[in-house]
Amino acid sequence: MSAITEQSKGFSKDDEVILSPTQQIIIKFKNNKLAMFGFWLFVSIVSVVVVTHFYTKFTGYDFSATHPELKNLPPSWQHPFGTDRYGRNTFVRVLEGGWISLQVGFLSTIMAVTIGVTMGAISGYFGGKIDALIMRIVEVIYSFPFLAIAYIISAIFRDRPAEFRLFVIIGILGFIRWTGLARLVRGQILSLKEQEFILAAKALGIKKRNQIMRHLIPNVMAMVVVSGTLTFANAILGEAFLSFLGLSVTEPIPTWGALLAKASSNSTSLRSFWWIWVFPGTMLFMFIMSINLIGEGLRDAIDPKAEFTTKEEKKAAKERRKAQKKAAKEGKLVSKGGAM
Amino acid sequence: MENNRGSKTIFEVITPYATYLGKRLISIIPVLLLISLVIFALISMMPGDPIMAMLDPEKTATMTTEERNAYVETMRAFMGYDKPPVQRYFIWLRDTFLEGEFGYSIRFNKPVNQIIGGYIARSFEVNIIGFFFAFLISIPIGITAAVKKNKLYDKTLTVLTIVGISLPSFFLALLLIMLFVVILKLLPFSGMSDPRGVIPDWKYLVLPVTVVVLTSLPSLTRYVRAAMIEVLKSDYVRTARAKGLTEKVVIYRHAFQNALIPVVTLVGMWIPALFGGSIVVERIFAYPGMGYLLSEAYNYKDRAIIQTALLFFGMLTLLGNVFIDVGYMVVDPRIREGKVK
Amino acid sequence: MKKKMILLLVFTLVASMFLAACAPKEPTSVDQGTPTEEAKPENLRPLVVGSADFNGDFHTGWTNSTYDKNIRQLVWGFGLMTDNPAGEVIDSPLVEEKTVSEDLSTWTFKIKEGVKFHNGEELTVSDIKFTYEFYMDKEALEATGATSNFNEYIDTITIDEAANTITFKLNKVIYTTDSSIFYETWILAEDMITEGATAASQTVQEYVKANISNPIGYGPYVFVEYKESEYVKLKANPDYIGNAPAIKEIIVKHTPSETELDQLLLGEVDMLFALGEAEKIDPVLADDKFASNNYFRHGGGTMVLHTDYEAFQLTEVRQAFAYAFNRPKVIELFLGKYGVASQGPYSKNHWMMYEDNEKDLIGTAAEGKFEKSLTNYDIVDANGKFDEAANIAKAHELLDIAVAKTDGEYANLTGNADSGYMWKGEPLNIKIALTTFWSDTYHLTWNEEYVSKLGFGVTIVGLDWPIMYGHWTGNTTEERQYHAYVGGIGYVIKDNPRANYGVDKIKDWGHPSSNGPRFTGGSTFTAEEWDQLMIDIENTHPITGRDQYRELWREYVKTFNKEVPVIPVYSNQYFDLYTGDLENFSTNALWPWTRAILDANWK
């Protein structure tokens, strides 16, 4: 007996190991260089932004302090990203600018995902009139151009404090972006519903709520995560657009969108003082790109049709393809030679 | 198609589609009414007196007190804002759907139906050209990427498309202005024609069109690539290969034409954008299209234009959905048989 | 079927492009004969002027966009009266002779013969009568959404076609009568309008409204073409009554503010007018291919205080607030450097502020003897910089005086500088309403760190214009909550303070106070001793009452300066920037480019 246990614990690479789906996804993701690049980029931008935010908060950094004599200075050791038209240090402003984006991104994504999954699951599971009603609601919300609605709603809350309006914007972004996800989840659930394990659950008399929460939703989670990254990227872009149109927070709080908007309010400054837009623009771009790279990596990772999971398998696949190519080439040569 | 089913007349072939189309069109009416109600409610909730919006800072500098007060009351009655909201909603519905009157614009001092057509047409001009090029470019590169899946070409393209979807369009527009207008001095800044007649009109279209192309290209390419990969996995492609057909024939004859199906339905998704334009891009290029009109309308709180434009977008989105559904039906035999029979 | 799909796709695209190509592009244009006069080739170069977007309202009476007004000034030039570069109202070139009766009630104009409209029609006294009656027909006019107040002033109009005279019998004459009735009332071409209206079976007002973007005047430039949101094209009028302008073609082009400067620098436009931001002005000044005129604007930025609301009912609190308000910082942040803070009512171009021997100072940054006698609410240090500590100390001193008083509303103010001032038991907090336009500047000026030193709070709230306007005029059902409003002011050619500060103009909260259309004051300040003064100013003789007007107006300014119903924040120094190829182009605050361009020429 003991010998057998010993043996079963001593895994070696030659052993057949059954990996759980999550483990498979993690391994596949880790093996994707591009996705990992995105992941580390994301982590480093988030940590720099968070550190800057709390550092400035605790040291009482004054974002409204203006220095007319330091106006529009190019990058230097003292001001690595130069200064803006009010003589403020762009470096701190750019790093702090991500704080709003992060809040907007995380909160509105959580909101969109929660509403989307709930609505999609209910719609897909119950079908019939509930489904029809929810799908009509989805259709209505989906039929509004996002910016237009954001514009009107932020006009309604114009006289509230900037922080309050920020949460309104998060709400708008979250509330408008859930429809796509709801459709996706609904479609998945519709097809899952007919599968044996759910039929079994039904036959066993498991509560509807538990059927949905315990059995259906975990099965669509992977797709939700992928779609969530897209929502996240879109929410940040959305905030940047709103800032660009002057609908987000006000001075002295910086956001990437607002920094870009201010820089581009005058094309001559844009041209002469490149540092006022290059840095926030690059940060915004890199951040969104990192999220998209993660999303892309996750999408590949959850794809069950992928031919390999681990590094070794990938290598093997590569070898196989090379061999095939070689064989094909040789074959061609042979046939050519034969013809001659 | 008619020949395949020799016995049927054209009429018989079209009828099921027409019926389905008719049904779908009728089904959007309640949704449209709901949308109109939401739009109206939201706009009525916008604070402030719409008539006061006409007294914009730079506008009424020379009016005296009496002029201003008389003006406000005149305009209030003239534009019907003296009536209660519920009544206004029904008047609006009646005017919009039955009489084709979209209200009175305070920004342009004209009925909305006199101005909106030109703006829609101008947005359409830029977007249709943009989408045309976007399709033209994305289809071949998307196919190539699918065929060369996981090879260097495909990987490079994947990275490029991710870069593309991560670039905010206003940032892209600014970069293009910097490059082509300020540095290379090849193109004009903004507007859509040169009153002096020195710069040809097409040059004004280049930058807005380029932005449309570059912003729709990445997602379109990804879409084509994904559709193509799906098709290449399918049995009939394997069969075609097995029959010994050359790779070119397999890809372009068999696979591509099937991959086109989902791509064509994409047109449905793009219908709103086609007419709607983009607020941000049109503002940067001072291009007088729908996006520009809408942003002007926001600045002036021009409720008539906002209402009309939002309803128009809503309707286009719904029509786009109908287009997708009907398109799928026409294109996909499985859906067709299922729905029609 | 697959082929059909491709065909369908291609067809959709092609059809759409075709549709787009056929899309209506509706430039409105009037066909005019080519000028008979031979022009020098270099003079044929069109002058392209960059402008913000226009409405296309090129007839007066409907909305009044400043940018539309530029076009009207070019097309008509003048009404029965006009002004000169010094800002004086004078008879226009249309008028051969003007007689005003002793009691000012009868104004008779003899009109020059041979003045022609751009369509060839002759301008007669009948056209003038038609024009005034056009605007006096209140019912027909309002049915098209326009207004006019001529009815209040004009009783009857009679004409004598043989003598070519027109006589106005007026029922009310005040200091501003000539400017509000005869100045810039453009004369309409009667025959063309009545014929057109009859043909379309419309009222004349409906006809003009329908053709609002198609102006026919008699001024220096003939309207050629208007492309919505794009440009207006005009060409010189060969039959112009004055000197024919040397610039033969003018194009006013809609230019977005984001790119306007680069458009000037790269030669897409030849001129930008009335710029105030240093960021835009300095790059052009540094480039010797360009020339510029600069002047202090006849108007400026203001902050209006509601003198009947909470703590701002107390004069000392308003004065303290004015001391605490760092105006130089607003100028620094908002304008860069081109602007000054004035003590009088915001314009450096009011002749009333200067003595007869100070004429040289009008329109400059220098202060005249009278302005120097007024209180300056910025205490400056030895370097001429805003002395923060001294200003705050002065504010505290004034607040302490108010705390010490206990009668009436003064009882509500308690506290001191260290523990904070209180109003009705709550910490004193001043709420300022503004539009996004000023948002950055005011948030940075009244920043948290600075406000923490004041002993009272300052909250800045951004509002959309219509909402802010509702609060400002008191025409809102919402709870009253703002002490001050940020705005700007533009002056008309003759100022009548009673229009803003007459006691009868100020109403209770919830009723729109009719004091001041928008920024021309809009405070709620009333003082009983003022009322007679306002009436006296208004009733000064419009033609000969100059000295009397100045004296009375200064009394008004002194009270204004002491009571602070409005803080004059800045007077912009405006720049008109243009290509160096243009010469003899001299604008000033009272002489905009549309007037100065008549004397300008290409080098």
TrEMBL record, chain A:
Residues 317-326 have a biased composition (Basic residues). The chain crosses the membrane at residues 34-55, 104-128, 140-158, 164-185, 216-237, 274-295. InterPro entries: BP-dependent_transpt_permease (IPR050366), MetI-like (IPR000515), MetI-like_sf (IPR035906), OppC_N (IPR025966). The keyword Iron does not apply. Keywords: Cell membrane, Membrane, Transmembrane, Transmembrane helix, Transport. It is found in: Cell membrane. Residues 98-295 form the ABC transmembrane type-1 domain. It is a multi-pass membrane protein. SUPFAM superfamilies: MetI-like. It comes from the Bacteria. Residues 312-340 are annotated as: Disordered. CDD domains: TM_PBP2. Pfam families: BPD_transp_1, OppC_N. PROSITE patterns: ABC_TM1. The keyword Nucleotide-binding does not apply. Its main location: membrane. Belongs to the binding-protein-dependent transport system permease family. This is Peptide/nickel transport system permease protein. The lineage of its organism: Bacteria, Bacillati, Bacillota, Clostridia, Peptostreptococcales.
UniProtKB/TrEMBL annotation, chain B:
It holds the Pfam family BPD_transp_1_N. It is found in: Cell membrane. Keywords: Cell membrane, Membrane, Transmembrane, Transmembrane helix, Transport. PROSITE patterns: ABC_TM1. The chain crosses the membrane at residues 25-46, 128-147, 159-184, 204-224, 259-285, 305-331. It is a multi-pass membrane protein. Gene3D superfamilies: MetI-like. Residues 120-324 form the ABC transmembrane type-1 domain. Belongs to the binding-protein-dependent transport system permease family. This is Peptide/nickel transport system permease protein.
UniProtKB/TrEMBL annotation, chain C:
Residues 1-20 form the signal peptide. This is ABC-type transport system substrate-binding protein. Keywords: Signal, Transport. It holds the Pfam family SBP_bac_5. Belongs to the bacterial solute-binding protein 5 family. Gene3D superfamilies: Dipeptide-binding Protein, Domain 3 (3.10.105.10), Periplasmic binding protein-like II (3.40.190.10). Residues 94-497 form the Solute-binding protein family domain.
